[in-house]
Amino acid sequence: MNGVSAIPLEHALILSGILFSLGLLGILLRRNILFVLMSIEVMMNGAALAFVAAGSRWGAADGQIMFILILTLAAAEASVGLALVLQIYRRFNTLDTDAASEMKG
Amino acid sequence: MEIAFYLAAAVAVISTMMSVTNPNPVHALLYLIVSLLAVAMVFFSIGAPFAGILEIIVYAGAIMVLFVFVVMMLNLGRATIEQEKRWLRWQAWIGPSALSLVLLFELVRVLHPIGGDKHMVGYGTIGAREVGMALFGPYLLAVELASMLLLAALVAAFHLGRHED
């Protein structure tokens, strides 16, 4: 299986940069809080790709360790964020982030 | 294996773009799942099979199913799609696209002087064995902290998700 594949590290890092920028675009563009959460997942995925690529460059397992920690963070963030989405929908009957702007203090 | 990397990268970028711009929540989620599977293929092609398998099982299998469940519970219908289309006018595109493009340009520009031939990725494979040895050796404290984070998230999701009667 393992043919020598020679992919430059910077191509993998550029891919992760593109994914990160697309996630940022989604966060800035969307008003629906569900789409904002999805864009945050995209951004974390891009960052995780950078870690795994760098770990693969140096032949070390540390990059994948960091990927597992990012995965844990993403799971925790998604569960809490989606619970908040359900609460906001129940309280304001909409998913507009502007509707939640009355939560001051 | 190079062709696998570049194909999967193209699929990941295109499906992420569709996911970010789609007004339908379910379609956007499905595009996002395709994007995550493509990134898993990228992991396989750069010699990180354990990360690829975890990406499929945990990201595409568990987190995205959580999103799908929430979309089902919210019962988002045609009204949501119309609302999203109203919100996604072309005036709303200019600022975010410009800012993201500037950031992407800077990232690519910073990466440029690395030099293509010196740093290659994917010569060797780092399997589950090496990752497990490192995970439960020097990174044991990080594993414990991650378990506490998951416990806190579990309690928080239980507390926030219940009905107030």
Can you give a write-up of this model?
The complex is a heterodimer of chains A (105) and B (165). Chain A is an all-alpha fold. Chain A is elongated. Chain A is 73% helix and 2% strand. Chain B contains 7 helices and 1 strand; from the N terminus they run H-H-H-H-H-E-H-H. The model of chain B has no long low-confidence stretch (mean pLDDT 88). The chains are: A mainly alpha (105), B mainly alpha (165). Chains A and B meet through strand 1, helix 1, helix 2 and helix 3 of A and helix 1, helix 2, helix 3, helix 4 and helix 5 of B.
Order of helices and strands of chain B: HHHHHEHH
The radius of gyration computed from the alpha-carbon positions of chain B, rounded to a whole number of angstroms, is: 20 Å
Order of helices and strands of chain A: EHHH
SS element count, helices of chain A: 3
> Segments of chain B where pLDDT lies below 50 for 5+ residues?
none
Global structural class of chain A: mainly alpha
Please summarize the sheet with the most strands of chain A.
Answer: none
Task: Supply the number of helical segments of chain B.
Answer: 7
What general outline of chain A do the C-alpha atoms trace? Answer: elongated
Percent of residues in β-strands of chain A: under 5%
How does the helix and strand content of chain B classify structurally? mainly alpha
Helix content of chain A: over 70%
Give the strand tally of chain A: 1
The number of distinct β-strands of chain B equals: 1
Shape of chain B: globular
Strand content of chain B: under 5%
List low-pLDDT spans of chain A.
none
Q: Please give the largest β-sheet of chain B.
A: none
Distance, first to last CA of chain A: 58 Å
How much helix is in the residues of chain B?
A: over 70%
